[in-house]
Amino acid sequence: MLEKNMKWTFTTGEFAKLCGVSKQTLLYYDRVGIFQPERVLENGYRVYTYLQFETFNVIATLREMGTPIQEIKSYLDRRSPEEFIRLFAQQKRELEETLQNMERIHRMMESKIATTQDALQVDETKILLEKQPERRLALSRPMQNWEEQEYLPILTEYLSICNRNNRMQSYSIGTVVRWKALLDGNVTDCTYYFCSQASEDTPPSFLHCRPAGTYVVAYHKGDYDSMTEAYERLAAYIRHHQLSIVPYSYEDDLLDEITNQDSQEYLTKISIPILE
Asked: What is the torsional sign of CA 251, 252, 254, 259?
């Protein structure tokens, strides 16, 4: 039993409930040496005090942020105002990085949801003219063919740039192709990967401006091997309307292996800039 006149004291179960954790957590923290009861009575009862709540709250916050037990113990063993500032400043920086990363993930989720919802409303049989804004892209080095010894190093380098600049979590990957060569049967003529939004610290050699203006747009439903069907429809539309266009196109994947099991249900948006 607790001492008769002791005030603001708690048993292990009471203190655990106060802190919103299990008794096992308190026992574990005691065992590893980062948080002990104020005293242990002769009968083995652990006694915690109200004044320990703030200390436990700080430890729990650090643990929630992923601070290792040993780092917390090291701080507690040599605690001082200076050490407190150092530890919390470090944790604050890490928390800010985590929040930025979570914000990127949030934007990616919003973008993916919106893109998928829009894709479900698309009439893939239509060709249309569409105003598109300027976009700064992160562009890979050109690939002259799809043989593994050439495209794999280029793709690896490019994904490394995207990951290093945290673009993969926020935006999708597409391709730039020379569409006239594709119609001629040259499917390996100078293709680029692009990330749909370049970051401020993307190396200049990887930057590409996707110009604002009017684009002729078609949608291709099916796997990538049958993409020429959409380009043939585009070419016929361009000839019929006597449009002056650039020799390359942008391919944005709207529905792919992430959303569909069947590759015949993939949906790609093909955009070709019109010269005005």
From this structure: positive
- Determine the Cα–Cα distance for residues 144 and 166; give it in Å rounded to an integer: 27
For the whole prediction, is pTM greater than 0.85? no
Is the domain of 220 the same as that of 145?
yes
CA torsion through residues 146, 148, 150, 152, sign? positive
Domain count, the chain: 3
Q: Model confidence over 49-67: pLDDT tens digits?
A: 988 998 899 899 888 888 8
- CA 162, 206, 209, 257 torsion-angle sign: negative
- Residues written for the chain: 276
Residues 181 and 259 in one domain: yes
Residue (of 116, 58, 147) closest to 255 by Cα position: 116
Question: Which are the contacts of 200, defined by CB distance < 8 A and separation ≥ 6?
Answer: none
CATH number at residue 14: 1.10.1660.10
Q: Write out the two tokens for 107.
A: 């934007």
Please, which residues have CB within 8 angstroms of residue 41's CB and are 6 or more apart in sequence?
2, 3, 47
**Residue 148 CA to chain centroid, in angstroms?**
27
* Domain shared by 130 and 255, yes or no: yes
- Rounded Cα distance between 27 and 32, Å, is 9
Per-residue pLDDT tens for 168-211?
445 567 888 887 766 665 545 557 777 766 667 777 777 888 99
**Domain shared by 140 and 204, yes or no:** yes
The residue segments making up the domain with residue 233 are 123-273
Whole-angstrom Cα distance, residue 153 to residue 54? 53
Task: Tell whether 175 and 113 lie within a shared domain.
Answer: no
Tell me whether residue 3 is in a domain.
no
Classify residue 4: in a domain, yes or no. no
